[in-house]
Amino acid sequence: MDSTVWALLLSAVSISFIHTASGPDHYLPFIVISKSKKWSGMKTAILTVVCGFGHVFSSLILGFIGGFLGWQLNKISWFQDIRGNFSGWALLIFGGVYLIYGLIQAVRNKPHKHFDVMGDDVYVYEHNHSEVVMPQKRIKVTPLVLFMIFVMGPSEPLIPLLFYSGVKHSMSEIAVLVTSFTATTVLTMLGMVLLGRYGYSTLFNTEKLERYMGVVSGAVVTVCGVGMVFLGW
């Protein structure tokens, strides 16, 4: 693989790992439900993998929209002469904008998900740190609810990566991005769930890292864009 493919591969793996590992909502509900319902390890793993693929599916839909737009631009004759510089700059600009957005979200008191165990049931709700959540705002977590939560929570930074490859009409790059993003997301979710289920703590405070997830993802895309534009990756 050339340097461009390696850069995209590392970006996709980094973003998917950070996005998954930094969000307790990607694994905590599976751990809690598994323990409260006394599920087997196999049943827990199957639900985690199914929800993981649902999460990947929604992310890839957004990503493929970006890839499709980039692919369609190549049908414009005058675009052929500038597509290399354009795609790299588009990647860099998106990364910078997403980095700024992540910084703003980190400073603000952004609502986040919490999971509560009440008896044998698990409930999910969103709140700010200073907000008291009334019981009626909590939603009982079922396998279907969990699946829908993950389908409706895509990873936006995948969009510019697939857009970049779409502009280049590179099916090999698109295949590398899709495969690496899917495998990393699902395996990270499964690994975190199994660690928690069998009593092992994670190596870092994911709740604190979650606040800066947008910042780190934006920085990864920005670095990738800088490499494409200025370093000839």
TrEMBL record:
UniProt keyword annotation of Membrane present: yes
**Signal peptide (from-to):** none
Keyword Ribosomal protein in record? no
Looking at the UniProt entry, the stretches that span the membrane are 6-24, 45-66, 86-104, 144-163, 175-200, 212-231
Swiss-Prot/TrEMBL keywords: Membrane, Transmembrane, Transmembrane helix
Q: Please state what the protein is called.
A: Sulfite exporter TauE/SafE
Organism for this UniProt entry = Chryseobacterium sediminis
Q: What is the lineage of its organism?
A: Bacteria, Pseudomonadati, Bacteroidota, Flavobacteriia, Flavobacteriales
